[in-house]
Amino acid sequence: METHSFTNDLITESSPYLLQHAHNPVNWKPYNEAALQQAKKEKKLVIISIGYAACHWCHVMEHESFEDSTVAAVMNKNFISIKVDREERPDVDQTYINAVQLMTGSAGWPLNVVTLPDGRPVWGGTYFRKNDWINALEQIQEVYSSEPEKLIAYANRLEEGIKSMDLINLNTEDISFKDFPTEKIVAAWARKFDTENGGFSGAPKFMMPNNLQFLLRKAVVENDTELLKFVTLTLDKMAYGGLYDQIGGGFSRYSTDEKWHVPHFEKMLYDNAQLVSLYSNAFLITKNPLYKEVVEETLNFIATDLTNEEGGFYSSLDADSLDENGKLEEGAFYIFTLEELQELLQDDFNIFKEYFNINSYGKWENNHYVLIRKKTDAEIEKEFNLTTETLRQKKEGWKKTLLTYRNKRDKPRLDDKTLTSWNALMLKGYADAYKAFGTRKYLDAAVKNATFIANKQLQKNGALFHNYKNEKSSINGFLEDYAFTIEAFIDLYQITLDEKWLLLSKKMTEYTINNFFDSEKHMFYFTSKKDPAIVSRNFEYRDNVIPASNSVMAKNLFLLSKYFEETGYAEISHQMLKNVSGEIEQYPSGFSNWLDLLLNFKNSFYEVVVVGADAPKIVTELNTNYLPNCIIAGTKTEKNNPLFTNRFVSGETLIYVCENNTCKLPVTESKIAIELINKKE
């Protein structure tokens, strides 16, 4: 049995990130009321150190500083030290990210902040070398001992700054979204498009799936061929890049260079979830077999590496793993030498080398290669005189051989906590993949995960938990948990027609309005009124790598207003969009999910209602089309819901295409319904 010189209070936590620090000589405490009260009682400054399990530089700082007894002695003498997993506590993370942003102009992880005993920040930054960290702490402690009023005055100013960062004002102007200048906005945004490599100019390069979802929709709905070309170029290049795991499926978090070649190798659930949705939607439009391959391989990776027995999804895989010398190295699990590849692939190496650029284009460092593509399958087939089927079999064989070999290596560490918000994103990914490909196991995985959330994370009053591990949920849900779960359950209803998911969506929406909604500003706070504020209670409304919880909630309210004829929901959604409309024009990439909602108001939006014995079959047919501008509802029998009243005709299955509750004559074929939905005004 392993013995440790030190054990601190993190030993009872379930987060893998916190448990990684449980044997540091630092007297770490988890973020809770007891730790904060101790700081107040002992009048000590607080160190709040925030990171996450897949964060490379978090591990570096731990090894250099937090495992060092000299550093620990300084921290333990004068400070209460609190470790936070940012994924478990996005509320704590956001508050102190904002603070460091204000103090230094930039922020990231690891995030290290010193606060007064009451939690208000006075100093902070990201990664620090050992000596810099010790010197900074000693200086702050010196000021706190000799001139505490200086720190208190600074904390007061900073508190005002934090409170003003996510301020939202109620917009009372009359705004016509029909006339909103989306053309002008996208034209200005297009100046940042990388038309050679796809994505957005500069490095590092993040995938930003939500940006691409909006641009894809705008391109298709408004028949903008140039914009569609840019989106598909981006999707192709990302799928060809080293950012995509060419052997095992799934995407890394971002690329360190402009051509999507060398990633920061951690794999996050939330990225892969959104990319499955994006590539599935793009397949509906283009029928590009590459997109199908990406979805299949990514979902295979999710099923193999990130799914538990209950149907819940784990959070991430680390970037680092042990190399052949037993040293922790970033990307060690994923890279190959020329000699390894030659030995493994033998006679096929010449084709493989050309396919995955085992040349100067694909070379990384220390004579290692990150697999990256440049040519299409058709180009490779022509070059080597191969049939499509032969190349397909070869690719399958290469991947199998390399995967078997790779799996003998030390695997990256798994963050096996389950987060409700990220699970809901993945559930939506499975639902979108089922729409596109009709693969039964995708539907089964979606239903299993939704059942897991409904049984384990959702309480009888409509409240959600945020986290789950070892049969335990300990943190109350944040707005992101409600927004993404409601969205995923609406999506699940549209493929199953099981009304249970729609009713649960409405129940959670009512809970969210009662506990998160600010009736003055007409926006939702990130935290429930039942939880204490950290410095201040903020609104999260700018879209990022993950869409903002407020933008998702506004979309949910719009859709649910159609399902339940709840005009109050539609009014809140409309007002929320009005509140952010001023910022949209200045910074469209931070408001792409809001822009997606705006298209619902700008263009025609339909309620498509299928009633009759063949409703499930018709709905499945409808779902194989890209239909971002409608809701779908269906029933095999007579029902009294607003959408179904007086629409059942015995012995027939009828499709009603309606706009604002005004319906065209019912039709009996999905093909005709699609024509009605896609008819240009």
From TrEMBL:
An individual GO BP term: carbohydrate metabolic process
The Spermatogenesis-associated protein 20-like TRX domain, residue ranges: 7-161
InterPro entries found in the cross-reference section: 6-hairpin_glycosidase_sf, 6hp_glycosidase-like_sf, Ssp411, Ssp411-like_TRX, Thioredoxin-like_sf
Pfam families in the cross-refs: Thioredox_DsbH (PF03190)
Protein name per the record: Thioredoxin domain-containing protein
Source organism per UniProt: Aequorivita flava
